[in-house]
Design goal:
Layout: H1 30-37, E1 73-74, H2 77-82, H3 89-96, E2 106-108, H4 113-125, E3 128-133, E4 152-157, E5 164-168, E6 173-177, H5 182-189, E7 194-195, H6 208-214, E8 231-238, E9 241-244, H7 257-261, E10 270-277, E11 279-280, E12 284-292, H8 295-306, E13 314-318, H9 320-326, E14 334-342, H10 348-359, E15 364-365, E16 369-370, H11 378-399, E17 402-408, E18 411-412, H12 416-435, E19 440-449, E20 452-462, H13 468-485, H14 501-507, H15 510-523
Parallel strand pairs: 2-4, 3-4
Antiparallel strand pairs: 1-2, 5-6, 6-10, 7-11, 8-9, 8-10, 12-14, 12-15, 12-16, 13-14, 13-19, 17-20, 18-20, 19-20
Helix pairs in contact: 1-11, 3-11, 8-10, 12-13, 13-14
Length: about 525
């Protein structure tokens, strides 16, 4: 995204940060940064200054687009800086230290599929790497260029392609352009009483195409946890041609063409539009929280609920550290946040049954509250506020030289307790070794299934001033090793990008890797699409 509001959201005058998360007016001030830094002994005494685009060494573009494409392309320094990287901790601290990496030569903003195809044709002829870019919220190095194998780099920003083109109310689906940001998409569906019902933490700052290309996970904790389940058909522009799959409710006709591009992260083609399955907007909601003094019993309670047919919309378990950090608990308890919703019938009975199951495993909590009539309980409200605020606080701590980042995974229930213990022990030891400071490592379960769950870890430790990226890389390497040994996925919903490539290479079967490379060569013969993502 450019550093200022764009035509995709004309009613929003807030300014996006080019270097950090979200909006500039929501970033912690210097005093709050210092206050947070005091909680991590060994951090800086004063925050790093907010970086300025004017201080970056931005070279003149190495290529010039032809006149036929010039109106789609800009070399504006602010636009180029804002498209240099995503929003991972590594990205934020590199910007703060004045080392953002390879700045794209040009930023293109096509408005239709043919313009995407024309840009790819030109880039292939002139050895220009093309990095598809939606909202720029990647936290795994998915939207940056690393290396020097290409003559130039073009950031392909799709956010000008942001319209809901057609709504089929009979089949309850919609044809949506891939550059639509979450709020822009939902605003167009709301008059029809419909919703995509996909709300990742990055909802404000990510696009439909980004969700599809990364197989994004949404806020809802059970059943339809990933964007995959809502896809009816995809249109994809590749250097080898444009493909459009049929709209079908289901099909057994060979390998799925949609599955080929879901999770492809822009390495095989550019998703430009999709038919998506919709839902009626929920009318009934109810939520409650449950406290546990024993984390293992809390895990058992969550597993029992996940293996029932209750299908909660929210079923998030916060360990004591995560509960304290979010303000959901201050007495050392773990907290389970439960929520149910429906478009057709009250959900109070389902919530009551889930609470009974939690109490049977030692949980305690208030009686459920229907959100149509009353606000959620204090723990639920605190968690929701912290959930949205946390990325901003991470950036504030980064300004204090702290290393604060998250990683997530998923494993079967039989492996979950040992996995969580190993992460706390071994990642904590790696952090202590590389920094000389004890790390805080918190865990929450973000998504749950009958056969397993997705633990999400937060790591916070004072870094080595000026060397914070290397510190995080050491910690991340230890985490990757733990996940691999416990047969836990390298990512449940953050995607692979470049940061997770080592773990992904270990996880995928060799024949599949062979087929993926062949597919890449067939669809992208010049090797211009997001080089270094998924495959070399």
């Amino acid at each position: 995204m450019p550093a200022t509001a764009t035509a995709t959201d004309p009613g929003n005058s807030r300014t996006r940060s080019w270097w950090g998360w979200g909006y500039t007016d929501a970033h912690p001030g210097d005093a709050e940064c210092v206050e947070m830094g005091a909680l991590l002994p060994g951090t800086l005494t004063r925050p790093l200054p907010i970086p300025r685009v004017a201080d970056l060494a931005i070279d003149s573009p190495a290529v010039t687009p032809p006149p036929s494409l010039a109106h789609l392309v800009t070399a504006d320094p602010e636009a180029r800086a804002a498209h240099t990287m995503g929003k991972a901790y590594r990205d934020v601290i590199r910007a703060l230290r004045g080392r953002p990496g390879r700045i794209p030569d040009l930023v293109a903003r096509p408005t239709e599929d043919q313009e995407v195809a024309d840009l790819l044709d030109w880039a292939g002829e002139h050895q220009v790497a093309v990095v598809p870019f939606g909202g720029g919220s990647s936290v795994v190095g998915g939207v940056e260029y690393r290396g020097d194998a290409h003559r130039a780099v073009l950031s392909l920003d799709l956010t000008a392609m942001d319209r809901v083109l057609e709504i089929d109310t009979v089949s309850r689906s919609a044809l949506i352009q891939a550059g639509a940001l979450g709020p822009v998409l939902e605003e167009q569906l709301r008059p029809h009483g419909l919703t995509l019902r996909h709300f990742p933490q990055s909802f404000e700052f990510s696009t439909l195409g980004g969700w599809l290309a990364t197989r994004a996970g949404g806020h809802y904790a059970t059943v339809h946890t990933h964007i995959d389940d809502f896809v009816q058909s995809l249109r994809v522009v590749t250097p080898a041609g444009t493909g459009l799959s049929w709209r079908l409710p289901g099909s057994g006709a060979g390998p799925s063409p949609d599955r080929l591009f879901l999770g492809s992260e822009g390495a095989l083609g550019v998703i430009t539009r999709a038919w998506m399955r919709l839902q009626e907007r929920p009318r009934y909601k109810a939520s409650a929280s449950v406290a546990f003094t024993d984390f293992q019993r809390a895990l058992d309670a969550v597993r029992a609920i996940a293996q029932s047919d209750l299908a909660p919309a929210n079923c998030r378990l916060l360990d004591p550290g995560e509960a304290l950090l979010s303000g959901a608990s201050h007495d050392g308890s773990s907290v389970l946040v439960l929520g149910f919703e429906s478009a057709t019938a009250p959900v109070d009975d389902r919530l009551a049954i889930a609470l009974d199951m939690a109490r049977a495993h030692g949980g305690t909590g208030e009686a459920p509250k229907a959100e149509r009539d009353a606000p959620a309980d204090a723990a639920v409200s605190a968690w929701r506020s912290a959930f949205l605020r946390m990325p901003y606080l991470r950036d504030g701590l980064a300004r204090m030289g702290a290393v604060v980042e998250t990683f997530e995974t998923a494993a079967t229930w039989d492996r979950i307790p040992a996995l969580i213990d190993a992460v706390r022990t071994e990642v904590g030891a790696a952090a202590l070794k590389t920094t000389g400071h004890a790390a805080t490592i918190n865990c929450r379960l973000t998504h749950v299934y009958p056969d397993g769950s997705a633990p999400y870890f937060t790591v916070a430790v004072a870094g080595r001033p000026g060397d914070e990226v290397a510190v995080w890389d050491d910690i991340k390497a230890a985490a990757t090793d733990v996940l691999h040994r416990h047969r836990a996925t390298i990512t449940h919903h953050h995607a692979v990008g470049r940061d997770h490539r080592p773990g992904y290479d270990l996880q995928r079967p060799a024949p599949f890797a062979l087929a993926l490379r062949a597919t890449k060569n067939a669809l992208d013969p010049h090797g211009i699409l997001n080089p270094g993502v998924l495959i070399d």
